[in-house]
Structure formats: C-alpha cells, structure tokens
Amino acid sequence: MPVHTAAYKSLRSDIKKRKRNELVKSELKTRIKKLESLIREKKKDEAQKYLKTFSARYMKAASKHIVHKKTVSRKISRMAKRINAIN
Length: 87
Description:
single chain, 87 residues, mainly alpha, 83% helix, 0% strand, elongated
C-alpha cells in the first residue's frame, strides 16, 4: 500500500480511470461484434452507416489513450475492406 497521501490520491484516481477504460473497451468490443454480424449478413448499406459511428467512437477512444491510435486505424481499415468486399 502507498505510504504518502499523494500516492493514495493517485491510487483512487487510477481506480476511476481503470473503470472508465474498461467500460469504453467493453463498448468497443460490442461495436466490433455488431459490425462483424452486419458483414456476415451481407448488409452492406447498414454496415457502411455503422462504420462511421464505429470509427468515430474508436478514434475518440484513441484520442483519450484508451487504445493505441495505430490499432484503431488498422481495425477501421480492415473493417472497411471487408465491407467493400461484400457483393
């Protein structure tokens, strides 16, 4: 356990940040699953619309350093590629 009072404050804020990050990461995983299901069902128009909200939410998480920005760009690129491959 921390010795200094500032370390206790840091510990409290770390717990809050971890909870927030877990919520955001969970939401992102849910969004990936929904987009993948749209791709599997070959709903190209819906998938393209959903990709915009998907990418916006992912970029916001990257800007807050919850996920790495290159990971985000890679996932968005791969999803867009899969959507464009739908006939």
